[in-house]
Every structure is written in structure tokens, then in C-alpha cells.
UniProtKB/TrEMBL annotation:
This is Uncharacterized protein. It comes from Phytophthora fragariae.
Length: 132
């Protein structure tokens, strides 16, 4: 697997720890079959932090700048598109790259969660209220 898909590793590195495999919570769903989605935390221009009183404030953008943000955002977008292409060609490779090189917890081997196909659909997180 590593030999065939090793060229994807630089893009997986871009996405490392940015994707989470989370259950979809729906009150109206009558079926017992649990659904999951891939949540992607996108890079942001500004980062917020809390002071000692718990008040949020915006950090200065000089440390990264617009060019850095655009480059990072473009890399994430390209990585997501390439991984989606892998998913359409080879589900086993898709799961392997997600779990082994992107840091996504897909469940234990043999679990129903891991046994089913994972669709290449991303839920994009644009505003983060919590620390990564």
C-alpha cells in the first residue's frame, strides 16, 4: 500500500490532525444505523485566544500574513481533492491514508464503522470555537 500510494504522503501531512471522523447526530433519524462524516478544520486568517479572564481576543496577523494563509488554504484544498480521488478509485487505500497518515481515528479493525465505505464528502468547519 505504501509503495503504491506513497506519493500522497506530502498531501496527507498537510491534513494531519485536521480531519475527524464524527457521528452525525440527528434526532429525527428513525434507523439504528449510525452515520458518520469527515469534519475538516480549515485554516483561518486570524486566530482567537483567551486572556486570563476568559475573554477572547484576536491575535495580530503579522505572524502569518495573507500570503501564508492563501498558500496553506490552497494546500488543504488540493489535499482534500486528491484524497477524494483516491476514495473513488480504492476504498482500502483511502481508509489507509486517512487513518495512517492523516491521523483520522476510523475505529478498530473489524468494527462496523470501519467495515463500510466512507464517502468522500467533507463537512467543513469554518469557525472554531474550541482549541484544536
Amino acid at each position: 500500500m505504501e509503495q503504491r500510494w506513497g506519493f500522497m504522503l506530502p498531501w496527507c501531512k498537510v491534513l494531519h490532525k485536521k480531519i475527524k471522523f464524527k457521528p452525525v447526530e440527528r434526532d429525527w433519524d428513525v434507523w439504528a444505523d449510525q452515520k458518520y462524516r469527515l469534519e475538516v478544520s480549515l485554516p483561518m486568517r486570524c486566530h482567537f485566544t483567551e486572556d486570563s479572564d476568559g475573554e477572547e481576543f484576536e491575535l495580530d496577523m503579522e505572524w502569518s500574513g495573507e500570503d501564508y494563509f492563501q498558500d496553506t488554504f490552497c494546500q488543504v484544498r488540493e489535499a482534500l481533492a486528491l484524497l477524494a480521488a483516491v476514495a473513488h478509485v480504492d476504498q482500502l487505500a483511502w481508509k489507509y491514508l486517512l487513518s495512517e497518515h492523516c491521523g483520522v481515528n476510523l475505529g478498530k479493525a473489524g468494527s462496523a464503522k470501519l467495515g463500510r465505505d466512507i464517502r468522500a464528502e467533507y463537512f467543513l468547519v469554518l469557525d472554531q470555537d474550541e482549541d484544536p
